[in-house]
## 1
Amino acid sequence: MIKFSDVTKAYQTDEPVLAHCSLSVPEGSVYALVGKNGAGKSTLLKLAAGFLCPDYGEIRFQDMPVWENRERVQRDIGSMIDLPVFYEHLSARENLGLHQAYMQTNGNINGILKKVGLTGINDKPVSSFSYGMRQRLAIARALLHEPKLLLLDEPMNGLDPLGVEELRSLFCSLAREGKTLLVSSHILGDIAAMADTVGILSGGSIRREFHMNDYQGAGKELFEKEVLAEMKGDIL
Ligand code: ADP
């Protein structure tokens, strides 16, 4: 669905944030990008969304170069990257309605709100929402135009354990519907439980990939140990 081949990206003249980074996310799978703060996870997601242009290398979405076709590609991608910004004085429905008008689509706003667990909010302004409610609204906005690929940057941040569990089950059901998810986190346990593949981003590239089928049941402990060792740069 989306493929990075040997991608390098630097901001201004700094050391590259990504260097010779390659990864491939098959259609209908959940790929969890794990790395320390500052590892380049958001940068990678912005490149995938066509918000940034790679310095070298290529990113393809369904075999189309992303940057050159970004307007076309963005119709099939839903993203939640960076802190979501809303019209604070408007309700969730009004915010989604405006987004829909902008995207020239007409998804089912009430259905999407229900899907992300934002019910009983009536016409409350977004300014009265908790952090978790804002996260859900941002995910609803990303889903509104029925994208094939979802790019989510730290979606579990700031949620309580119940909220994390609810989002995890939402992401699993989206994957079952056939959507492809590329999700970042700096907290290991958060997304590993729902991912098909976990990629460790370190030193500018995917240092190692874990295929979660290989770590069922008791293998989970070994998985966590191996991931932490990779993140610390230990040789096992
Ligand atoms: P992560 O999402 O893993 O925390 P980021 O992709 O946000 O990592 O950032 C990677 C590095 O790039 C950090 O050192 C950050 O300071 C730097 N960076 C991110 N965005 C910019 C920008 N717009 N201009 C300059 N440096 C940036």
Note: The chain has one domain: 2-228.
## 2
Amino acid sequence: MILNLNGIWKMKCTDENNWYKANVPGTVFNDLLNNGVIDDPFYRDNEIKALEIAAKDYEYKREFYIDKELLNHKRLVLCCKGLDTLAEIRINDKPVGRTKNMHRTYEFDIKEYVHEGENTIHIIFESSLEYVRKKNEENPLWGAEDAVKGFPHIRKGHCTFGWDWGPQIPDLGIWRDIFIRGYSFGKLDDVYITQKHEEGKVGLLIKADIENFCGELLDLEVTVTSPDGEVIASKTKTKDNKNHIYLDIENPKLWWPNGYGEQPLYTVEVKLKNKDVELDSKKFRIGLRTIKINRQRDEWGESFEFVVNGKDIFAMGANYIPEDSILARCSRERTEYLIKSCVEANFNTIRVWGGGIYPEDYFFDLCDEYGLIVWQDFMFACAIYEVTDEFIENVEEEAIDNIKRIRHHACLGLWCGNNEIESGWFYWDFERKARHKTGYIKLFEIVLPELVKKYDPNNFYWPSSPSSGGGFENPDDENTGDVHYWDVWHGLKPFTYYRNFKFRFVSEFGFQSFPSEKTIESFTLPEDRNIFSYVMERHQKNGAANGKILYYLSETFKYPKDFSSLIYVSQLLQAEAIKYGVEHWRRNRGRCMGAIYWQLNDCWPVASWSSIDYYGRWKALHYFARKFFAPVLLSVNDEGTQVEFHVTNETMENVKGSVVWKLRNVKEEILKEGKVSFEIAPLMAKKLKTLDFKDVLSSYNDKMETYLEYRLYTEKGIESEGTLLFVKPKHFLLKDPEIKAEITEKEDRYLISLTSKALAKYVELNIEGEDIIFMDNYFDLVPGNEKVIEVEKDIFTSVKDIESLKDNLKIRSLFDTVEQM
Ligand code: BMA
């Protein structure tokens, strides 16, 4: 029996007398905002006030009614799925317990504290901010520079203290479900399901631990429902805590990551009963699959690749950070939008980065459903910890809670100890305190791997990202394990540098851009709209980043004429940079087996490495991702006047088709053209052809006015296409493309058909007053190739008819970013 305590509570700052209405689950910042007590911390420079607010203590309370039936249970347990972070729980004014880790689930026996009728629960939160400040004075610990000093002292999502893309808003509150549960006869303590894959069947072993309070024989029932609704069941009588139940699934339907097959899910329900009365139950949705990391010595070093159901997967995706600095505002809908956006951009993998939180159950449900492999970090990043026995004990509980919660998901690809701490010790040698280094080894190379082995033995543990396997052995080694490659961007190396490395698996590399103008408008006044203004700089957390954007801009594009153009070209730079890396690594499929860029999303409106901004708006990079992660990719490796065509086939089928290319000039004459037929086996990359245009591109001037257009056709139509310039875009003699858009209606859709008179680079469509994801955007338009963009009518909010669509459709391309003389 459950008494849900979610819902309306009261909250106040402990220094004040005024109580406000609060929502649980929720957080202090969210409640204060809803009550109009504080200003939106995301607006202009309001973030500065956040630290004052977070420096105080807060109190939550509510009444709850306990009836006879609930009270009569042998055990009453208060279950707190998430308290952020330092909380004291009181029932009817008596202390019930304390918490110190936002990542843990806490349970308290409360039978002795409650009575029949009205009861009161109080939860008092001590400021995490003040706590880490104080602790750090006593014992300074190194942590990422953009966060509040001392954050490694507390088990709370690190980036809530700030990061190089995140504000400092160390919020507090009852951030996950809270309820009371009564048990009388027994309880299902733990259920663990393992799969044995054999020819034509999968055997399920269900281990159920029960707690028996009554000493009688209880019934344990297991039901497995297939994706088509077929039911297989098994039943046993038990008194003991350890139970094993076997079930065979014949003709199993296997789960695959996105792009390789379907995502069928089976439901496993385990029930504990006493003479037909259900005492407890647990429900899991599992996918039948094997997933391994293949690490094999080879001619280059050691491979690092996901192998799903025996097939090697080239991991394509991005790094995921918390979706909102005010966690109360996260929702399944928002996460689904994001995960869908990943799949729409052909992702098959997502990395949950260690500086945030272990995501909600629905995050993993969605990754199961949409087919994203999850690289799951434990929540440790860029920090040194004081690894005391107490700290280890706390972390062990956290790890067990989360391993048990997440381990059954089909999407779970691997567990990783932390983000960038092993490499931190290796490259920066941190503070050289021996005990901290020993603590590191204990935590990430002994304690966590042992826990994974014990509670989730079939999933892989990797000590750190990046790593070559641990022990501070060259963690960022090009030829072993995963790497974070930041010389392009942090190291100001040109995009071409990506091509110097054939990493085994790139789990981070990134490039910043500004969010869209609509997003900038949400936090600025018109006078702030200059990237060096005080307000814009407050929404740029990486100190040197604006300078870097401008540096790369100077290398690539002409000086943009205004703010709007600068925002737009910043996104183009980002998209081109990441494309450059990904295409190169996909061309080297086999040696390199993963390209996970930094970062997918934002937790507030900010300039950052994200491809989707805080409001869910796709930057140019996300549209590019859809193309550079296309299952069948045509990419071009160019060197001077030479071009190589490469095809990468990330599908499970043989692909046949042809590549059609044209070498054109700005007068739109075709200088050369050709066609190459190809056939490529599943899951491989190959070079199709090398061409040399040195006869027509003998001078720099020739290169300034010549471009290559290429397209890959299969029986499905055009699957991959692009254009290639032989000089940097700033030197290319772009002509006015005079883009023409014709809009027609076809049933429930508008068709926007676009043509141009000259090459148009990075054509951007935008409909004023609307937020729309187009089927394509930031594409090149070549004269003679009509591009038709279809838009469903019912996605519009303000556009009512074709005329208003015409009025509000704004189109620009690179040509428009500079003043024309
Ligand atoms: C990485 C991440 C983050 C950081 C990003 C950009 O290495 O792990 O810590 O936000 O770089 O600097």
Note: The chain has a mean pLDDT of 97.
## 3
Amino acid sequence: MKRIIAPSILSADFAKLAEQAVMVEKAGAEFLHIDVMDGHFVPNITLGPCIVKSLRPYSSLIFDVHLMIAHPEKYIDAFADAGADIITVHYESVSDMKGVIQQIREKGKRVGITIKPATPLEAILPYIDLVDMVLIMTVEPGFGGQSLIESCLEKVRALRRQYPALDIEVDGGVKTGNIASVYQAGANVIVAGSAVFGSDNPGDVISEMLNKK
Ligand code: DX5
Ligand code: ZN
């Protein structure tokens, strides 16, 4: 499958978000991964719908909004209205998954579902036919710059075997040095935060990530 790079603005300079979104788009990224954290579901706070709305006019990237928040159903409409294209919710934070999937669909957005490293793939198997993308976390959600947990790639392999055409995203600890193995495991949408924005040449990192065999 075609490889898509989704730079995570969590590691960007928040004072220059628009500029950095334009830069990664020029460098060949197709998604912009937007990490939303609430200080409850994860021990960190990032940004809300107003930032997504402010950024929207500067970018034609697919806004890939990763909700690491409690009660995501309270905020889905606001993120949809702000300009999200894909809204991904954590299995661990949702009590009525079918209802949440329906809510995102009613807003006309693509639906993603995600699991933390300790959650087995089996937990989300009942929902996969209802979503557009599955995000397999390869770090504990909350912070950029952590190391990829190799054992999580086993979930990617298992999922790809069962779903040859599904968008499978991997998030956490992906670098130029391990992106080939993440892609070979079966991920076609690959998030990279610190690898891209921590570099002096983010554009070069994105092209290397797109082409690394
Ligand atoms: C972690 C976030 C990630 C993070 C990845 O909770 O979901 O998207 O930005 O950062 P890196 O690529 O630095 O591991
Ligand atoms: Zn993320």
Note: The mean pLDDT is 98.
